[in-house]
Design brief:
312 residues, 9 strands, binds guanosine-5'-triphosphate, binds magnesium ion
């Protein structure tokens, strides 16, 4: 079984992100039924339905996931051809599905940094999380300071330091795993609250206009690299150094962008919604394509294929 670890600062949008990841799976499973299916354990569904229910009602979730007691467990099934990357396993075009088992856990970088400082004996559940080959660091776009204020002071600098500590912990745990393939860490950065990214920041990052789904191919990673270099220099350094260290390799980071459309005048239901056709009901206005790409990327990695060529 593969596992993915979502890490972020407190309040950086982790719960919302997990709710949207579930929303995208629901949608993929109904709209692209012949390409993707998923199922999850009852406890996982119960937890995610509670979060998704709030988002679909236009509110930010008050309820939070209890990762420790019930890590989220999914069975994702992709049409075999979807997972066929460059140099893939050459699965036949017989229309069958490949299934991957994925466990998703979340933790704040603050907690991990505390463990690291105190050299604490970790619970088995935490240790298992820290052995995740896929790590999803969240970068809260609303907290990126405009260039004029300097990028490497204040909360973002603190986050940068804690993120490095976190990645170091994961790398240490992965280095103990047998098998070189199992030891490669795949960072999949998720920029959250992108709707609240300051215009000066977008300008400084030379981000193309419009939503990331409309950006030219490859721009997500280009803008992501700029975010790393400008705002998270220690993390950028760590990732670059580790990529050269063959002992415990880190794959080059991939970037995904999430944001919600906010309706300012309606305080009780601040998130804009759209109806889910043909399924009925509502879902929040969120960038489905970003989540679809992320789910496919998780599927490919969990399936153990070599990294596929960059998708736009
Ligand atoms: N504008 C905007 N605000 C967001 C978005 N995602 C989260 N927020 C805001 O950030 C707050 C925290 O979001 P959560 O998803 O609960 O974040 P969290 O990291 O789980 O927070 P804690 O569990 O409290 O550490 C929400 O109440 C919203 O106000 C987004 O995509 N856009
Ligand atoms: Mg939360």
């Amino acid at each position: 079984m593969s596992s993915a670890l979502v890490v972020g600062d407190r309040g950086s949008g982790l719960t919302t992100f997990v709710g949207l990841l579930y929303a995208a799976q629901l949608r993929l499973g109904t709209e692209e039924e012949d390409g993707f299916r998923f199922s999850a354990e009852r406890q996982t569904i119960r937890q995610l339905e509670a979060i998704y229910g709030e988002l679909a009602a236009g509110r930010f979730p008050e309820w939070d996931v209890n990762w420790e007691e019930h890590p989220l467990s999914f069975l994702l099934a992709f049409r075999a051809s979807k997972l066929r990357g460059i140099g893939g396993r050459g699965v036949g075009a017989d229309g069958r599905f490949d299934t991957v088992e994925l466990q998703v856990g979340g933790i704040s970088v603050e907690e991990i940094s505390e463990f690291a400082v105190h050299d604490a004996i970790l619970e088995e559940s935490t240790r298992r999380l820290l052995r995740s080959t896929m790590v999803l660091p969240l970068v809260d776009a609303s907290r990126l300071p405009p260039a004029a204020q300097g990028g490497t002071t204040g909360p973002i600098a603190r986050y940068d330091a804690r993120l490095v500590t976190t990645l170091e912990q994961v790398r240490r745990c992965l280095a103990l795993e047998p098998g070189r393939k199992a030891r490669t860490m795949h960072p999949l950065f998720v920029v959250t609250k992108f709707d609240r990214c300051a215009p000066q920041v977008l300008e400084a990052l030379r981000a193309p206009p419009g939503p990331p789904s409309a950006w030219p191919s490859g721009m997500r990673d280009v803008v992501g690299t700029r975010i790393l270099e400008r705002y998270l220099p220690s993390t950028a350094h760590f990732v670059a150094e580790a990529a050269r260290d063959h002992g415990s390799p880190i794959a080059s980071p991939r970037w995904f962008y999430s944001g919600l459309q906010i309706v300012p005048q309606l305080n009780s239901t601040p998130i804009a919604r759209r109806s889910r056709i043909p399924r009925g009901g509502w879902e929040p206005e969120y960038p489905f394509e970003e989540y679809r790409d992320l789910i496919e990327q998780l599927g490919k990695l969990a399936h153990g294929l070599p990294r596929a060529a960059a998708s736009p």
